[in-house]
Design brief:
The chain is of the alpha/beta class. It is built from 15 helices and 20 strands. The strands form 5 sheets. It has an 8-stranded parallel β-sheet. A 5-stranded antiparallel β-sheet has the order 14-15-16-20-18. Strands 6-8-7 form a 3-stranded antiparallel β-sheet, with no helix packed on it. The radius of gyration is 24 Å and the shape is globular.
Length: 563
């Protein structure tokens, strides 16, 4: 363990298996393992590096860590093309190291969540290799979506569906004799063939994978692209405006039976092993249907993440999210970014501070100073909301998006399949800076034999963990203070939120008896209601809250709330 972050086990006892509600207000830290910490000096983050910094995560105040895929994979899509769920990618470590990490984290009071990617597998998965070697109509091909093409020579794709990665969703195999054969479906890249979830082998295998990792002590799974598994077997084209349940490959009603099966597996283990869905669904009623008591425990709230830095936008998102979750009794989740999304410091400094994959471009101007102020304010705003909080590695350091990576290092299929128009997602995956004045900033051990797999900007010296621990006003220290109060303040234990009417420029609400969170969207400082200042994202100006900042206070008048 890093000697700077040694935590006595008595300070963070292992969480009990009989705590059924741990996930409802947990702080979950997302680790992109190739970029978190390099333990063996090859320039690639690994499990050894993560184990060394578990003390840092315990001191930060997180309840769980979520690892993006650490499995054996050709890495055509950053590990989301899984070749074997029961093996760790050799660049990251071994299964024994993963088991040790899970146990060591649990001893510090931190559960582990692993990623499952059920929509597809890798081209290198044993099932798909067997399918390519088999004939049309064979049992091996029945686990996938192999279809003959249209037209007299079969050269026309079965559908014109388009991919989130841009481009077509079908690729044609080449037979051993060199002639073209059938087409196979891949909603993402051609290296990620889609599974047919009507096949019993597919359902049985994934439930066995859940058991494999639950048996090793993980506290839950995050389900990638959770709304895409089931397809309309007739393969119709996508309607111009599909109604609820009418889309041929998104949010199909049969999905719910799959997740009821997964929930049964999770519930067969002691404590609560959570199912967390990645669901990009604009229809809130369809979204919360996945959170019924016999399906997923919770799902990512992407609406809040995608909203611009604007009072009415964020208030509407909060209100809609809480109202949608209330009928099913599920807590909402709050997240500002992840391994796919432009970093908040960069995004919030732009004229259009909203997020959408379709608008991700290079060369968009940003004001990093403004973005940093807003990211600090957003950190306190989200930490004060009821429900669970997700924090992507490096956001607690205020890392910006790295937008000038060399073209030769951009391997994201989103970049490749867009013809270079989309910059891809590597910019938010640059290795973390831990210490020192120059790259690799402690990411790799001293004397490492290789440079980090993505280059770190030379001006990150002020953003290292070491530098920010020495600065009481740093974003890291703000996060540490916020997460400690979030954990210990009795007013933040429940699920309540009461809006405060303090004028059109302040987003303000009360939690519990007297805790209040206030964010200033005005261009001038704003007065605060009477009370005790608990924490602020910026220093007050003559007792007033500066623009683009958030304060937590203990109200002198707890009755100050809308009916």
């Amino acid at each position: 363990m890093d000697p700077l972050h040694r935590v006595a086990l008595a300070e963070r006892p292992a969480p009990p298996d009989d705590d059924p509600a741990w996930w409802r207000r947990a702080v979950i830290y997302q680790i992109y393992p190739r970029s978190f910490a390099d333990g063996d000096g090859d320039g690639i983050g690994d499990l050894a590096g993560a184990r060394r910094h578990l003390g840092y995560l315990a001191e930060l105040g997180v309840d769980a860590i979520w690892f993006t895929p650490w499995y054996a994979s050709p890495l055509a899509d950053g590990g989301y093309d899984v070749a074997d769920y029961r093996a760790i990618h050799p660049e990251l470590g071994t299964l024994a190291e993963a088991e040790a990490l899970i146990a060591e984290a649990l001893a510090l009071g931190i559960r582990t969540i692993v990623d499952i990617v059920p929509n597809h597998v890798s081209r290198e998965h044993a099932w798909f290799r067997a399918a390519l070697a088999a004939e049309p109509g064979s049992p091996e091909r029945a686990r996938f979506w192999f279809r003959d093409g249209a037209g007299p020579d079969g050269s026309v794709m079965p559908t014109a569906w388009t991919s989130p990665f841009a481009g077509p969703t079908w690729s044609r195999e080449t037979r051993p004799d060199g002639t073209p054969g059938q087409w196979y479906l891949h909603l993402f890249s051609a290296d990620q063939p889609d599974l047919d979830w009507d096949h019993p082998d597919v359902r049985r295998e994934h439930e066995d994978v859940l058991r494999f990792w639950f048996d090793r002590g993980v506290g839950g799974v995050r389900i990638d692209s959770a709304a895409l598994l089931v397809k309309d077997r007739a393969l119709p084209e996508v309607p111009d405006a599909p109604g609820p349940g009418e889309h041929p490959h998104q949010d199909r009603d049969d999905l719910h039976d799959i997740y009821r099966g997964w929930r049964a597996v999770a519930d067969s283990y002691p404590g609560t092993r959570v199912l967390v869905g990645e669901l990009w669904l604009p229809d809130t009623e369809r979204f919360v249907a996945y959170l019924r008591p016999d399906e997923m425990h919770t799902a990512f709230n992407f609406d809040f993440l995608a909203r611009p830095w604007a009072r009415d936008e964020l208030r509407a998102s909060i209100a809609q999210t809480l109202a949608a979750h209330a009928p099913v009794g599920a807590p909402s989740t709050w997240v500002l970014s992840n391994h796919d999304v432009t970093r908040p410091v960069t995004r919030y400094g732009r004229a259009d501070s909203s997020f959408a994959f379709a608008r991700k471009r290079t060369g968009v101007p940003t004001d990093l100073a403004l973005g940093t102020h807003r990211a600090r304010a957003a950190a306190l705003l989200t930490a004060a909301l009821p429900g669970s909080l997700y924090l992507y590695q490096g956001d607690e350091l205020g890392l910006p998006e790295v937008e000038d990576l060399p073209e030769r290092l951009r391997r994201d299929p989103m970049h490749e399949r867009s013809g270079g128009v989309d910059p891809g997602r590597e910019g938010c995956r640059v290795p973390l800076p831990w210490s020192g004045d120059a790259p690799p900033f402690g990411f790799s051990p001293e004397g490492a034999r290789a440079e980090p797999w993505l280059p770190q900007p030379a001006d990150w010296r002020s953003l290292t963990v070491e530098a920010q621990l020495a600065d009481p006003d740093s974003l890291l220290q703000l996060y540490r203070a916020a997460l400690a109060r979030r954990r210990d303040d009795a007013d933040l234990v429940g699920d309540d939120l009461h809006w405060l009417d303090l004028g059109p420029e302040l987003l303000a609400f009360r939690r519990g008896r007297a805790f209040a969170c206030l964010t200033n969207f005005a261009r001038v400082p704003q007065p605060l209601p009477a009370g005790e200042l608990l924490l602020a994202s910026e220093r007050l100006v003559d007792g007033e809250l500066p623009p683009d900042s958030t304060a937590w206070i203990r109200l002198a008048d707890p009755a100050l709330a809308e009916p």
